[in-house]
Amino acid sequence: MGLPALVQWRKVILPQAFRIVLPPLVSLTVSLLKATAILSVLSINDLMRVTASLSNYTFKPVELYSFAALVYFSAGALISGLGTRLEHRMQRSRGSS
Fold first, then answer.
1. Per-residue DSSP letters for 24-53?
2. Pick from 9, 42, 62, 74: most CB atoms within 10 A?
3. In which domain, by residue range, is 88 found?
4. Tens digit of pLDDT for each residue in 29-85?
5. CB 64 within 8 A of CB 53
6. Domain annotation covers residue 83
């Protein structure tokens, strides 16, 4: 093609690779977010570990765990929604070119 290597990567290789990698990457990110709740068992401070500590201190487990569930759901929905919008945008750009 006679293009410099940087232009080849930016204009040819990376757009094609990004279209292939995007759906599994979004799925993996959501799965990783869900798996962080398991980290509390390993004594790693994350949202669930902090929620458990606060619950033991304030004696309000229902409110705190409900809030933690809402945070996890919101973050998962946000990541999934952004990934879906990005996938649709990539589909439209591929269809128009």
1. HHHHHHHHHHHHGGGGGGGT--SHHHHHHH
2. 9
3. 23-96
4. 988 888 877 765 665 677 888 898 999 999 999 999 999 999 889 988 999 999 999
5. no
6. yes
